[in-house]
Design a protein that fits this description.
Elements lengths: L5 H6 L5 E2 L6 E2 L2 H18 L3 H17 L2 E4 L2 H8 L8 E5 L4 H14 L6 E5 H6 L4 H15 L3 E11 L2 H6 L1 H17 L4 E5 L11 H22 L7 E5 L10 H14 L9 E4 L22 H13 L5 E3 L10 H6 L4 E4 L1 H9 L5 H14 L10 H8 L8 H5 L3 H21 L6 H7 L2
Parallel strand pairs: 3-6, 4-5, 4-11, 5-6, 6-7, 7-8, 8-9, 9-10, 10-11
Antiparallel strand pairs: 1-2
Helix pairs in contact: 2-3, 2-7, 3-7, 5-7, 5-18, 9-10, 10-11
């Protein structure tokens, strides 16, 4: 249902909601969790009237807060993990590129069932662009899903790979950094209280030693961390992550980690909170390595590096290392992450693939998306790419242009896709030993 005015939005909620805007409260949760919340979030994403769209987003945030659902930072939990006060689990962080409301609902259902509190919703800088989901929209989808599924407690929403573009940085360092600062401020305003800075892209391997190689990285990370601390709301310590090795490049080393951390801490003003986790490279790549038939090659992860660098990271008070590019790994690999001390694992492409490849995803729509990709992104196709390889590598860019068609799939199809996703979330909570973490979150986050 598309509302023409703000008044018609509130008229549809009589008996379910009292007040308006930031002062709105839930009167009847059962009624709200029916079609009402579905209508609010639809308007928060698609309404062409900016006033109605903004009011819908504001309303979702207020209603979530009145139910005890709050956007939060995982920083304090990660500090406790770094001190050894809790652990033995790896936190799943899921990038949701499309069907965002329904996928978030499946994630919450699985979390509730598994008594999980430590789990993250995230979206990368690049994904914000090609999926056409700005931070305020993404946060609204997550919070609306929490309302719909009856979740209570802190919700961790993360800006993933807030990345420095190496070419732009080389051309104009200040302009590139300023652009990322602007995105960080936008994310903080949308209550993304977890930000992963990625300036590993400017590591300079031509330098004579590892400290100088990492210098552009740790100096830029320090500047952006200061920016986050200057703009985080009172009472919130944003969880900040950094990265020392570009995913898809050479595996990270202890020497690189120590060089980065020692340099970063010297650059950070005294007394300022630093980072709570560090991303490393262990042999994976985003989306996996695509074979000519469109399937994914099996990748060997260097779990020994995860174990070694997680131990070193905890010397600096961090929770451990972060693993990127993991969702295309075989199921039998995931239990090893928590056994080796990984703090967090990022999962994206696998869930994207589940949506596209579900028997419930319409063949006609998939063909339409593929035809669009072949035409709109033809300039990205390498001469060696088969059609299957090219479509696999670019299918992530179908979620933005086809957002409305995917969002409005028939309910029975969306329910079946949601059930498939929920089962996958169940598997990850189990394999990562991330079940029953709600008690840790309650103790350290509130």
């Amino acid at each position: 249902m598309e509302f023409k005015t703000v008044a018609s939005l509130y008229d549809s909620l009589k008996g379910a909601v009292s007040g308006s805007g930031a002062g709105a409260k839930v009167l009847d949760e059962k009624v709200l969790r029916g079609p009402a919340i579905d209508n609010i979030i639809y308007n928060a994403v698609f309404n062409p009237n900016r006033e109605v769209l903004d009011e819908s987003r504001k309303l979702i945030k207020a209603l979530a807060a009145s139910l005890g659902i709050k956007s939060a930072s995982i920083h304090n939990l990660y500090e406790a993990m770094g001190r050894g006060e809790c652990g033995g689990f790896t936190v799943p962080a899921v990038n949701i590129r499309g069907l965002t409301y329904d996928t978030s609902r499946a994630y919450f259902r699985s979390a509730i069932k598994n008594k999980a509190g430590a789990f993250i919703f995230e979206i990368a800088k690049s994904e914000i662009s090609y999926t056409e989901q700005r931070p305020a929209e993404y946060a609204a989808c997550v919070l609306a899903a929490a309302i719909k599924e009856g979740f209570r407690g802190p919700v961790f929403i993360q800006g993933d790979h807030f990345q420095i573009n190496a070419k732009n940085y080389a051309r104009d360092r200040d302009a590139e950094t300023a652009g990322l600062k602007k995105l960080i401020k936008e994310a903080l305003d949308a209550e993304f209280y977890n930000i992963d800075i990625d300036s590993s892209t400017v590591v300079d391997l031509t330098q004579p030693n590892v400290v100088e190689e990492q210098r552009p990285n740790f100096e830029t990370t320090a500047v952006l961390t200061e920016h986050i601390r200057a703009n985080e709301p009172k009472g919130v310590t944003v969880s900040v992550g950094a990265e020392i090795g570009e995913v898809g490049g050479k595996n990270s080393t202890e020497e690189e980690l120590r060089a980065f951390m020692d340099g970063f801490l010297k650059k950070l003003p005294g007394g300022m909170k630093g980072i709570s986790k560090i991303s490393i490279q262990t042999g994976t790549s985003h989306g996996g390595v695509v074979l000519p038939d469109g399937s994914i090659a099996r990748v060997k992860v260097d779990f020994d590096t995860i174990e070694k660098l997680s131990k070193v990271s905890r010397e600096y008070g961090m929770a451990g290392v972060v693993q990127h590019g993991a969702s295309t790994l075989p199921d039998d690999a995931f239990h090893i992450f928590q056994e080796k001390g990984a703090a967090e694992v990022h999962l994206a492409t696998g869930f994207q693939n589940m949506v596209y490849d579900s028997p419930s995803f319409p063949d006609a729509l998939k063909k339409e998306i593929n035809a669009h990709l072949l035409k709109a992104h033809a300039d990205e196709r390498k001469s060696t790419d088969t059609e299957e390889q090219f479509i696999y590598k670019t299918r992530k860019k179908g979620f933005g242009p086809f957002k409305h068609q995917i969002w409005t799939l028939p309910e029975d199809r969306r329910k079946k896709i949601g059930a498939e996703l929920e089962a996958r979330f169940d598997l990850y909570f189990d394999k990562l030993n991330a079940r029953h973490t709600a008690s840790f979150v309650k103790k350290y986050v509130g």
